[in-house]
Amino acid sequence: MRPKKDFENTDLFARMVAQKQGWELNPDNEFYGMLIEGLAKNYNRYGYFLCPCRDTEGSREEDDDVICPCAYARPDIAEHGHCYCSLFLSPEFSASGQATRAIPERRYGDHKD
User: Fold this and answer.
1) Could you report the per-residue pLDDT of 83-107, keeping only the tens digit for each?
2) What are 15-32's pLDDT values in tens digits?
3) Other CB atoms within 10 A of residue 65 CB
4) Could you give the maximum distance between any two Cα atoms of the chain, in Å?
5) How far is it, in rounded angstroms, from Cα 72 to Cα 75?
6) Whether the predicted model's global pTM rises above the 0.70 cut
7) The domain 7-96 belongs to what CATH superfamily?
8) Which of 4, 72, 80, 105 has the most CB atoms around its CB within 10 Å?
9) Active site (catalytic) residues
10) Where is 61: in which H helix or E strand?
11) Which residues are paired to 50 by β-bridges?
């Protein structure tokens, strides 16, 4: 049986991803907390950090493109300044003080990478 993830474990995961990728984390503490709780819940339910803003397709193999950080995070951050769920932001976007906004869904959109 795999160990459960709690807020602290998942927060550390997100911080490590952001540091490795050169990204910033969403500065809205309440929203950030909801995302981290969603990631932890998904890990405990599915066994992997499924993006908290997406539904599972039913298996790790089918969800591979949306395991955090998802396959769309890099292009979304490059184009929009943040990823789909707004967990990760580019340093430039973060410094701008702009609010995150809804962006197109690449997973099912016409411009899927």
Assistant:
1) 999 999 999 999 999 999 999 999 8
2) 999 999 999 999 999 999
3) 15
4) 44
5) 6
6) yes
7) Ferredoxin thioredoxin reductase catalytic beta subunit (3.90.460.10)
8) 72
9) 53
10) helix 60-63
11) 67
